[in-house]
Write a structure and sequence with these properties.
The protein has about 210 residues and is an alpha/beta fold. It is about 40% helix and about 10% strand. It folds into 2 domains: about 130 residues, HAD superfamily/HAD-like (Rossmann fold, 3-Layer(aba) Sandwich), CATH 3.40.50.1000; about 60 residues.
Length: about 210
């Protein structure tokens, strides 16, 4: 169990995909189906795990798509992802709902800071039944640059929120984004945690000390 003082944080900024929600399978299916309709050369080399924490736009830009084709690819991928959400291909991580409930019941503010689009994030939150606990939703629709740029977190911090604030992230891109916004970062679901973060093995590690 971590000995970090989690009680001091009044506002909690959670990443969504990979942090609260296990959506890797749905995203992987959506990317592969989208790319398979365009070019088999790219799909043979594509590994979704290499892009965790990235926005859909940034993934396709890195793959060489531009302009109208880029916009088309983003739209198609998002439609596939939303289809897989409604088909039940996402789930909430163990302890996530309980942690959100504990934070809300103890007077903390909970917000989502995600590289997903607003429509995709809202659909996932509604599907999993956790949207009522979320005070604010910051998405890639709100900023010019997604993670690892700090824009999403800086935008969240520009709103009227209660200090002190902590971010909760899983991906390297997400951790870097929060750190670049000068935030302490709780690191979850990691293969190897980054120096300067607060690593936890499970959400129970936080719940039991609040």
């Amino acid at each position: 169990m971590t000995c970090h003082d989690f009680n001091k944080y009044k506002t909690w900024l959670f990443d969504l995909d990979g942090t609260l929600v296990d959506s890797s399978y749905a995203h992987r299916l959506a990317y592969h189906e989208t790319l398979n309709n365009r070019t088999r050369q790219i799909i043979s080399d594509f590994r979704y795990d290499d892009y965790k924490g990235w926005s859909t736009e940034e993934v396709f830009i890195s793959l060489g798509f531009r302009d109208y084709t880029l916009e088309t690819m983003i739209k198609i991928k998002q439609e596939y992802y939303r289809k897989y959400v409604t088909l039940g291909k996402i789930s909430i991580f163990p302890g996530a709902t309980e942690l959100l409930e504990t934070l809300v019941n103890t007077g903390r503010t909970v917000s989502i800071v995600t590289g997903s689009s607003r429509a995709s994030a809202t659909l996932a939150l509604d599907y999993l039944g956790i949207r009522p606990m979320i005070t604010d939703l910051v998405t890639t629709d709100d900023v010019k640059q997604g993670k690892p740029a700090p824009d999403l977190y800086r935008y969240a911090l520009s709103k009227r929120i209660t200090q002190p604030v902590v971010a909760v992230e899983d991906s390297l891109a997400g951790v870097y984004a929060a750190q670049n916004a000068q935030l302490p970062v709780v690191h979850v679901h990691y293969d190897s945690f980054l120096p300067g973060t607060i690593p936890i093995d499970s959400f129970d590690s936080i719940i039991e000390v609040l």
